[in-house]
Design a protein that fits this description.
Largest sheet: 6 strands, antiparallel
Number of helices: 3
Helix content: under 10%
Distance between the termini: 84 Å
């Protein structure tokens, strides 16, 4: 027994050492006797010692290494001009303040700051702002006896930032087990992560015990992802929802180890790049700098003299993302555009790094004299801004602007001279001569904001968002006269937004400015604020839920505009209505409850009171026994009581993805009858009635489904990858994947239920299912199936005045014209929908059997559909002649607007009721002429008119309108 314990301890020690080693110690790049992940040289700029690895582990796995009393970001100081003072509070499940909680800020898995809450639950910390772009951070709060609380925050510009409250609730235990070939496997490293707003946040790291089990304490209720890594066995993933049912264990199954060779080359010379740092991630745990990377954390790899590094320990069926950084190259910070992807089965990936380039931009002299020769220029990138491009510099060189250090990919941004002159530049990938630039003189813009009675609004934070995507303009705050001054605006057009504290792009649109008109002062009117007092009750008692969101007229209300009283369950929400006359909806969304809403009438006064009774939402858990190959596509359907049919639904929460334990959970469901379906095999579960507040479980057994294999045959030269195999008559079961794909050799595989009689058919854009052999009936699993395609009907037509898209150098291209074929009458049984190929003004379509059809041809958004019945389409080519487009009918929307609270833009749509279903759209700005929705045929249309204004969007009209098929149908809409 003692010998066994010694062996186990030695194995554990070897595992720890194996994790910490970073690089080979031998001269031979193929020598991996030390168990390193790296196949490369030991020397290089990417090498790190053990302290680096320890720091990474400490920053990425906060729960495993909690530290009390952690301080602020050491790189940020109170007097630092780029520092953000982050303020926030921690509350419990009933929104009461929590003192002594440890709060930590993580960005891409790296620790950026920490603080401890005061007796009133408040905390503050100093962190650095994002450099050139906004960064999404995750706040973690921990206190003994509570589960880890989380909240998301955007780090953008310097200043004071108020974070959303962090809620601490009950603590739960997560239990998991690592298995290899169905047997417990010891010593694997297991990481548990949470997802917040799309971000992956590592929470804890542990080693599995001798029996393969791991236990994580101190986690809040919710859905978590688990990642297990073991040398030689690769990585396994799983999911667990807390609280776990008694006796349930999340299983992480390990398979084989996948090796991935990363080869790094110079993009220009093709020479290998030695000493490059290689970072690995997957679809969720993205590589650095935007994510925590592969979990459990792999050390950064360094390429050897041959520019090669070998990644070990990867899962077999994972899509791997690779990001590479190297001294003297500029690609890593642009990894969103330059990252390489290795899909399952890929054992090698090549990454080509480009060196910084020197690009010259001719100066076009306009109304402003450009800067003098030799003037240095500041460079700011637009779009997905670069985090660190310290080597980039620019200067005026005679009649050119020279920018040094640009990346090899597309780059654009703004150049700024010391005197304030600005020019926008664009450098396409690979060029050394960019587009001409023109310097313009920024102008001071004054934005005046006042209340409906004319009183100035002071202390209002505003933001200008340039419509041309140019550089960021620092926000401004209105003074005592209600004026916000933007001292240097070079953009011609920009949107004026009310700045919301906890979002990086500003809040609702207040209006727009256009400097081409010569105006430099703009005035906007705000609606009078309304203090909405909401009395919230849960199960008949006055209380607030732990997590909630309030929206007004579809726009989220910032936490700064909400004052809450956890004792009485009351909220005071300060909002500005969309208009002074029209009612708007205030919606209360709380996790675990159905949405609750109230109508607010501005005419009621500056303060209104409403009661909100929260009703618990339902939760459905589907436990799946997968088929042998593990492939299935689960969907949730709800019985629509009015239509008496099943309709797809997903609830307010996201369903758990396919996991090793086969658990899918659907949250936020209303009362009703539901069922679970598998879109691949056609499985339908028994209907189940859902009662809010009572979780319901359903067993989905797909293990009895069988695989059907076959082959598609077609005339020589046919591109079989465009063919699809369908199960006939399964349209009601929503074949959302549009059939099973066919390989280049014609082979296909699909699933069906054992004992089910399945009829298969094949489709192709230009060919038809053969009259003999185009369909096949399957009655036994494993039966060989052959489906045949043959040349079918081919028809063509011309459209007067519409030549279609064609290019002599590139050949025929697809057009926006669509053809639908029906049996009997238009809108009857739909036979096929095709997109004709346009070439030299001729529109050609095919892929169906000869017969008599009714045609519906859509001719684009500005023309009414063309219809024709009794069309005989025989074998060979059929000339349908020339079609003259018709403007058809139109809906003229007459808007009643007022000076106060008028919308800045209006959008309208008209959708045909019944078959054939199609839609037309139109947008409008007040003062730009009438609003018309054109291109409508004769029939009934569902019309929706939506307005956007200073406080968000709202629906002005929703109803049915009958169109005659020609002329205008008038519709009066109140847009005040």
């Amino acid at each position: 027994m003692k010998n066994l314990l010694r062996l186990l301890l030695l194995a554990l020690l070897a595992w720890v050492l194996w994790l910490l080693v970073d690089g080979s110690t031998g001269e031979d790049p193929g020598d991996l006797g030390d168990g390193s992940y790296l196949d490369g040289d030991s020397a290089g700029p990417g090498d790190r010692d053990l302290r680096d690895v320890e720091r990474d582990a400490d920053s990425m796995v906060g729960l495993a290494n909690p530290r009390a009393g952690v301080g602020d970001d050491p790189s940020a100081r109170a007097d630092d001009p780029v520092a953000i003072e982050l303020l926030g509070r921690v509350v419990d499940a009933r929104r009461h303040p929590v003192a002594g909680a440890q709060v930590e800020l993580l960005v891409a898995g790296q620790r950026r700051g920490g603080a401890t809450t005061a007796p009133d639950g408040q905390y503050r910390m100093a962190v650095r702002a994002g450099s050139g772009s906004s960064a999404r951070g995750t706040l973690l709060a921990r206190l003994e006896g509570h589960g880890t609380g989380m909240a998301g925050v955007w780090l953008a510009e310097p200043g004071t930032l108020t974070a959303p409250p962090i809620v601490l609730e009950a603590a739960y235990r997560l239990q998991g087990r690592v298995e290899v070939d169905g047997k417990p496997s010891p010593f694997a490293q297991v990481a548990v992560v949470a997802r917040d707003g799309g971000q992956v946040t590592p929470l804890a790291l542990q080693s599995a015990g001798p029996d393969g089990t791991v236990t994580f304490d101190g986690l809040a209720a919710g859905l978590y992802e688990l990642y297990a890594l073991l040398p030689g066995r690769g990585r396994g993933t799983g999911q667990a929802r807390l609280p776990q049912p008694e006796g349930e264990v999340a299983v992480l199954a390990l398979g084989g180890e996948r090796l991935l060779d990363v080869i790094v080359e110079d993009a220009r010379t093709g020479e290998p790049v030695a000493g490059a740092s290689v970072h690995i991630g997957d679809k969720r745990t993205l590589p650095r700098p935007s994510g925590p990377g592969y979990l459990p954390a792999l050390p950064a790899l360094t390429t050897n003299r041959q520019g090669r590094a070998t990644v070990r320990g990867l899962g077999l069926e994972e899509t791997i993302y690779v990001n590479v950084e190297a001294a003297g190259y500029i690609a890593g910070v642009w990894w969103r555009s330059s990252r390489q992807v290795a899909r399952p089965g890929t054992s090698e990936v090549r990454v080509r790094l480009g060196r910084p380039r020197r690009v010259m931009f001719p100066i076009y002299e306009g109304d402003v004299r450009p800067p003098e020769d030799g003037t240095p220029l500041a460079v700011e990138f637009s779009g997905q801004a670069v985090q660190t491009l310290d080597a980039v510099s620019a200067r005026v060189d005679g009649s050119y602007v020279v920018v040094e250090g640009l990346p090899a990919i597309n780059a654009s941004g703004v150049l700024t001279a010391p005197g304030g002159l600005q020019a926008r530049f664009t450098a396409p990938a690979g060029v050394d001569m960019g587009n001409a630039v023109q310097f313009v003189a920024p102008r001071a813009v004054r934005v005046r904001v006042h209340e409906p009675g004319g009183a100035p609004v002071a202390g209002l934070a505003l933001r200008l968002n340039p419509m041309d995507g140019s550089g960021r303009i620092p926000p401004a705050v209105t003074d005592a006269e209600g004026v916000a001054t933007f001292p240097a605006v070079a953009a011609v057009k920009a949107g004026v937004h009310l700045r919301v504290n906890d979002t990086p792009w500003g809040g609702p649109l207040l209006g727009r400015i256009d400097l081409s008109t010569g105006e430099e002062e703009y005035t906007f009117e705000l609606q009078q604020r309304i203090a909405c007092v909401l009395r919230v009750r849960i199960d008949g008692e006055s209380a607030l839920p732990g997590r909630y969101t309030v929206t007004a007229a579809g726009q989220r209300v910032s936490s700064e505009q909400i004052v809450e009283d956890a004792t009485t369950g009351e909220l005071q929400v300060s909002v500005r209505p969309p208009s002074a006359e029209r009612a708007f909806e205030l919606q209360f969304l709380a996790e675990g409850y159905l949405p609750a809403s109230v109508q607010i009438e501005p005419a009621e006064g500056s303060q209104v009171e409403h009661d909100i009774e929260l009703r618990a939402a339902g939760r459905l858990v589907a436990r799946v026994r997968p088929p042998d190959d593990g492939r299935y596509s689960l969907g949730l359907q709800r019985l629509h009581t009015d239509r008496k049919r099943w309709v797809p639904t997903a609830g307010r929460g996201r369903a758990a993805q396919a996991s090793s334990d086969g658990v899918h959970a659907y949250e936020g469901l209303e009362t009703g009858r539901y069922r679970v379906v598998d879109l691949r095999s056609g499985y339908e579960s028994r209907p189940i009635d859902l009662v809010p507040g009572a979780p319901v479980e359903i067993q989905v057994d797909l293990s009895d489904s069988v695989e059907v294999q076959g082959r598609v045959q077609a005339p020589a030269g046919t591109d079989l990858t465009k063919a699809r195999v369908l199960i006939a008559g399964r349209h009601a079961r929503a074949q959302a994947h549009a059939g099973e794909r066919v390989g280049a050799d014609g082979s296909f595989r699909l699933r069906a239920l054992r004992g089910e009689r399945v009829e298969l058919t094949v489709t192709h854009p230009l060919l038809a299912a053969a009259a003999a052999g185009g369909r096949a009936t399957v009655t036994a699993p494993g039966e060989a199936v052959t489906l045949r395609l043959e040349a079918g009907v081919e028809a063509f037509f011309r459209v007067a005045g519409l030549a279609g898209a064609s290019n002599a150098s590139s050949g025929p291209t697809r057009s926006p014209v669509q053809v639908r074929l029906y049996k009997g009458r238009v809108g009857g049984e739909l036979v096929r929908t095709v997109q004709p190929v346009a070439s030299a003004g001729v529109f050609t379509f095919g892929g169906f059997t000869p017969g008599t059809y009714a045609l519906w041809i859509g001719l684009g958004s500005h023309h009414a559909p063309y219809t024709r019945t009794g069309v005989v389409l025989g074998r060979g080519r059929t000339d349908l002649g020339s079609i003259t487009p018709s403007a058809g009918g139109a809906i003229l929307i007459e808007l009643r607007t007022g000076a106060a609270g008028s919308p800045t833009s209006i959008w309208a749509s008209a959708t045909a009721v019944g078959e054939p279903r199609y839609a037309r759209h139109a947008s409008h700005k007040p003062g730009s002429g009438p609003l018309r929705v054109t291109g409508l045929g004769k029939g009934t249309f569902q019309v929706l008119v939506r307005a956007s204004g200073a406080t968000g969007s709202r629906i002005l009209y929703e109803g049915e309108v009958v169109v005659r098929g020609s002329g205008e149908t008038r519709l009066e809409v109140d847009a005040r």
